[in-house]
User: What shape does this take?
Amino acid sequence: MPPPIQMHSRADFRKFRRVTVKIGSRIICNDQGLAYDRLRALSGQVDLLRRRGMEVILVSSGAVAAGRRKLKELPGPLTYRKKQAYAAAGQVALMTGWEKALSAHDLQAAQILLTADDLADRHRFIHAKNTLLTLMEMKAVPVINENDTVALDELKFGDNDTLGSLVASLAESDLFVNLTDIDGLYDRDPRDGSQPPLITAVERVSPSVLAKAGRREGSPDGTGGMYTKVRAAGRLAERGMPSVIANGLTRDVLPRLMDGEELGTHFLPADKPRGARKHWLAFAARPKGRLLVDAGAAMALVDQGKSLLPKGVRGFDGLFAAGDAVTIVDSDGGAELGVGLVNYPSPELRSIMGRRSQEIEGILGFCHSEEVIHRDNLVIFAKPAASA
Ligand code: GLU
Assistant: This one.
């Protein structure tokens, strides 16, 4: 498969061949429940794009919101367990809606439910990718959501903005479109009644851009707010993929966007993007422990792009096997420097940390690698803001 086309202007969107579109709960549902007319409108737009030769992958929220209007309300606050129960009923309504709306255009919906664990494991990640690519060969429209009913807190993506960006990356999309119920990223929070200017293009998701998104919450049914949307766009930019945050209620938003119309906020891809595997390592892999490294190693890793040697490891926590992801922490300042795949399991690392690589064989009786983490299996967060 050819690599995603890297383009910097909206006019170039016309040349794109694969787009991942995330649709937020507030578009999918209204106060009464599933807003079928919106699903129908969006399906018509998907059909239009497909006729122009584009593949479309949908990441659809709305299970919790739709289920909430279907099940008996229990007293007390909206707990996580209640949300999981709502999602069980709502996912059925959601997929029935998509099936009906897409089939009106002779398009076949295909449901994929994922947990964070599915994408954290490199093998399962590849399996998910292959299924997705096969579905697209079969001309189906994948409709993806988090498997809310089984995902426990520690296994959760957290929000569909994060899930959507991981799917966009997994599918090697040319563009990620995040549809919500406001027009894009504003200079200030527009919900205070003022009319701040809409930001039409973001060159880099710097800490000040993230600050504009605020840390505010999304709707009670959805989980993300503008912060998770901008963070997801920043992560994709580092991967070399452009994104747009736009209003899903705008008429014909998808074809108009793909025609290059200036709707929403366009996040430009980074000049020196990270490869797909490093993107996975940075954002999908789940670290099993933390390695504390000394100042010399920290400098070698961050400034010189070197591998991590046993000598630079001062300590660690967690239980991990060879090949697991671990976070690398500066033992002086406590800053998280990056993530890497470790070559030695924790009991062996305990024996060799602080020692020279030449000593490994004498200590363990074998030496399958001189490095604790090889630079090829390492991601340094040179720009911590986008990976916060
Ligand atoms: N997966 C949730 C749902 O379908 C939504 C989570 C989100 O929008 O961030 O209801």
Observations:
- The chain has two domains: 10-279, 287-387.
- Residues 80-103 form the longest helix (24 residues).
- The pocket of glutamic acid is lined by residues 24-25, 61-65, 87, 145-146, 148, 159-160, 221-224 (CB under 6 Å).
- The domain at 287-387 is CATH 2.30.130.10 (Archaeosine Trna-guanine Transglycosylase; Chain: A, domain 4).
